[in-house]
Amino acid sequence: MDSILLLWQNLTSITVSDIIDIAVVSFLIYQVVKLVRETSSARIIRGVIVLIVAMWISNILQLTMVNYLFQTVLTWGILVIAIVFQPELRRVLERVGKSKLSSLMLRNDTIPVEEKAVLEIVHACSEMSWSRTGALIIFERKESLEDVIRTGTIVNADVKDELVRNIFYEGAPLHDGAMIIRGGRVHAAGCVLPLSPNPNLAKELGTRHRAAVGMSENADSVSLVVSEETGSISIAIDGQLQRHLVPEQLDEILRTELLVKEELEQQHEEMTVLAKIMDKIQGFGGKKR
Ligand SMILES: Nc1ncnc2c1ncn2[C@@H]1O[C@H](COP(=O)(O)OP(=O)(O)OP(=O)(O)O)[C@@H](O)[C@H]1O
């Protein structure tokens, strides 16, 4: 309450000269940002080094006023550089937030949630294959499956072998339709998928397999099927169905598609951001004033 009152008092005490003050400072910052953008990166770095050395010397010589001046220029300089490289810095910080190091610091268990999900699903599928329980599981990747999710029921639970088997247990309310795994969690179940029109699919395959292939034709997701009739495990990616997989093969394919490829894509994105920053720095260096 006090702070609101204080803010109100401050706002009502703003004068015309304050507004001119803010406008002049904003204009100056804008001009400095423009200048930095047009100056070569080598010159910026040299300038910063010269400033730091001068500040250090002025401190030793006890030149209070000069030291204060250098400090102010350096502080503003850092602010200006942060503004100039704002898009690149934001992307790099976002990456740091998602990095393994930060996840290690935040969680005690070191296995990422996506890897745990793969382990649990492989276990559940080998059990369901043995017990001839029909299952249809879709792993969402980059492309959103929101339209399909809307046709089912939101579950939002950790992926557990027992939960997966429970959902597909014949007679359970959500056993019909597909389960959607999003971000290593059971996001939804009982979802209706698009059926593939592919005339070359084996005649003995029914709608569960056709739906798995159909989903993989419509998005970059990975479809996993356990046949109720034969217990056979299949995977559909990009419209291609791989059939009669043993649990070890299923584990290997899921790891490659969902863990290794994701990791590689993340590394590729990081390299692209880095290359863009280097390009920008080189662009500054190449420009003539
Ligand atoms: N469009 C769809 N979206 C999601 N699930 C579907 C869809 N069509 C069928 N299914 C699921 O597949 C089941 C029917 O499987 P069906 O026997 O026709 O297929 P199948 O490919 O022969 O599979 P199985 O080998 O398990 O018998 C439905 O009960 C439902 O759970």
TrEMBL record:
GO terms for molecular function: adenylate cyclase activity; ATP binding; diadenylate cyclase activity. Gene3D superfamilies: DNA integrity scanning protein, DisA, N-terminal domain (3.40.1700.10). It catalyses: 2 ATP = 3',3'-c-di-AMP + 2 diphosphate. The keyword Transmembrane applies. Its EC number is 2.7.7.85. GO terms for biological process: cAMP biosynthetic process. Residues 86-247 form the DAC domain. The chain crosses the membrane at residues 12-32, 44-62, 68-85. Keywords: ATP-binding, Cell membrane, Membrane, Nucleotide-binding, Nucleotidyltransferase, Transferase, Transmembrane, Transmembrane helix. It is an enzyme of class 2 (transferase). The keyword DNA damage does not apply. InterPro entries: C-di-AMP_synthase (IPR014046), CdaA (IPR034701), CdaA_N (IPR045585), DisA (IPR050338), DNA_integrity_DisA_N_sf (IPR036888), DNA_integrity_scan_DisA_N (IPR003390). Probably a homodimer. Belongs to the adenylate cyclase family. DacA/CdaA subfamily. Catalyzes the condensation of 2 ATP molecules into cyclic di-AMP (c-di-AMP), a second messenger used to regulate differing processes in different bacteria. HAMAP family: DacA (MF_01499). This is Diadenylate cyclase. The lineage of its organism: Bacteria, Bacillati, Bacillota, Clostridia, Eubacteriales. The gene is dacA.
